[in-house]
Structure formats: structure tokens, C-alpha cells
Design goal:
By secondary structure, this protein is α/β, with parallel strands linked by helices. It has eight helices and seven strands; from the N terminus they run βαβαβαβαβαβαααβ. It has helices at residues 16-27, 40-52, 67-81, 104-132, 154-174, 192-197, 201-207, 220-231; strands at residues 7-10, 31-36, 57-61, 86-89, 136-141, 179-186, 242-245. Strands 3-2-1-4-5-6-7 form a seven-stranded parallel β-sheet, sandwiched between helices. Helix 1 (16-27) packs parallel to helix 2 (40-52). The protein is globular and about 50 Å long. The mean pLDDT is 92.
């Protein structure tokens, strides 16, 4: 029970990686706020999974690009559980669009949710943690696309690269308060995002699996395991880093993927 009595918020916790993180944190003793943007039914499933293992959970709707809703998320968390110790910025979007066809609206949508959202959430979470005076953990869910060049994803790469840079500076600013800030960068992981990129199993197998040295896609549990470690006391001296969870995808030759 590495996180016994800690209070954690996970955005986009209704499915995929977010759900895996939420359940794993609960297994380690954390009280979990399941934050969702649109689909309350999926959030209810995640919360039900937490209660089934004996954990405590609440559900809060939050549009991460809406400052008032973000601040309300923090307020509701403190009202329900009394404090905030761990904030996981998991909510994100992705799509495939080559530069020559990339519309401004899609760029703004991507940067908004993937970068402005974590800025608003991190700021609100950090303010609460500073007020508590007992440190805390801010963990961003990034992507290997922040360091790996894949055609058709310049807007996605920009949002995730910006997230890494922002987090490094946050780590410096918040270190005196005992707050660590890190990025977990999944490779191709089973989630709704993979469904956005790949339309059928055959294409998925041919374009992706051959470029992952470990020969399989990641599971939400693979990402959640690292999040648990970074959220625990064992990671007290780790801050400002970007850690890939990708089965060796980043070191693999990029042209094998294209």
C-alpha cells in the first residue's frame, strides 16, 4: 500500500490508460477522484472497479480547458477527501493530419486539450499542494511522439513536446515546495487513441508491432505501474524527467514504422 491515505485526481479516467492508472492507484491505497470530460457512464465503470476492490472513489466532470471547471475539480476533491496529494494529467486527444491538410481548428483543439489543459490543471493542483505545505506529485501523461518523428502528427508532437518542456520548468519552480513534476511517455498503448490511428487489426499489426522490439503493444497497466512509483515516497528525489514506457519503440528505426 505505497499510497495509503493519499488523495489522487486522474483526468480522462473513464477509459484506457486513465482507467488503468485510477484502478492501480486505488490498489495501492489512494482515494481516487475519477475525472471525465464527456462520458459519465465510462467514469462510473472506473469508479465501480475501484469500489469493487475496496477503494474509495468519487466522480467529477471537468473540461480541462475550462479554468472554472478545473478549479471546481480541485475544490470538490478537497471537499470530499480533505486534501490533494497526486494529480495525473491524463486527458488528451490525438488524430492523424498531414501538415498541408492540417486545419487551424484542429491545431487549436489539440494544443488546447493536450497542453493548455495540463497547464490549467497543474497550476490549480500546485496551488492546493503549496497551501497544504506537505509536498505532492504532478504527473503528466505524455507520448513518445515528443521525441519520435512520425509523419501526420506534427500538432500532436508539438503538444506533447510542449508538455515535457513545461514540466521541466514546473519541476524547478515547485521543488522548494516538495512537489515533484514528471512525464510518463507511453508508446503505442491499448486505448481509444490507438483506435483513432488504426482502423483494423491487420493494419495495426503490419505498421506497428514490427517496430516495437518487445513485440507487443503496451497495456494501461504498464503505464500505471510507473505512475504508482512516481507518486510514491520512493520517488522523492525524482523530478523534471520524461520517462518512456514503450517496449523499445523510441530506439527502433523510425522508417520501420512508416
Amino acid at each position: 500500500m505505497k499510497l495509503n491515505d493519499k488523495v489522487a485526481v486522474i483526468t480522462g479516467a473513464g477509459y484506457g490508460i486513465g482507467r488503468g492508472i485510477a484502478v492501480r492507484l486505488a490498489e495501492e491505497g489512494a482515494k481516487v477522484v475519477v475525472s471525465y470530460g464527456h462520458d459519465r457512464n465510462e467514469a462510473e465503470i472506473t469508479s465501480g472497479m475501484i469500489r469493487k476492490i475496496g477503494g474509495q472513489s468519487s466522480i467529477v466532470e471537468c473540461d480541462v480547458v475550462n479554468r472554472a471547471q478545473v478549479e471546481a475539480l480541485i475544490e470538490e476533491t478537497v471537499k470530499t477527501f480533505g486534501r490533494l496529494d497526486i494529480f495525473v494529467n491524463n486527458a488528451g486527444v490525438a488524430n492523424q493530419s498531414w501538415l498541408l491538410d492540417l486545419e487551424e481548428e484542429i491545431w487549436d483543439w489539440m494544443i488546447g486539450i493536450n497542453l493548455k489543459g495540463p497547464y490549467l490543471c497543474s497550476r490549480a493542483a500546485a496551488r492546493q499542494m503549496v497551501d497544504q505545505g506537505e509536498g505532492g506529485r504532478i504527473i503528466q501523461i505524455g507520448s513518445v511522439n515528443s521525441t519520435r518523428s512520425v509523419p501526420g502528427r506534427c500538432h500532436y508532437a508539438a503538444s506533447k513536446s510542449g508538455l515535457v518542456a513545461m514540466t521541466r520548468v514546473m519541476a524547478c519552480e515547485l521543488a522548494p515546495h516538495g512537489i515533484t513534476c514528471n512525464v510518463v511517455a507511453p508508446g503505442c498503448t491499448r486505448s481509444r487513441m490507438t483506435e483513432m490511428f488504426f482502423t483494423n487489426e491487420e493494419e495495426f499489426q503490419s505498421r506497428t508491432l514490427k517496430s516495437i522490439p518487445m513485440g507487443r503493444i503496451g497495456e494501461p497497466e504498464d503505464v500505471a505501474a510507473l505512475v504508482v512509483f512516481l507518486a510514491s515516497d520512493e520517488a522523492n528525489y525524482i523530478t523534471g524527467v520524461n520517462i518512456d514506457v514503450d517496449g523499445g519503440l523510441v530506439p527502433a528505426p523510425c522508417w520501420d514504422y512508416i
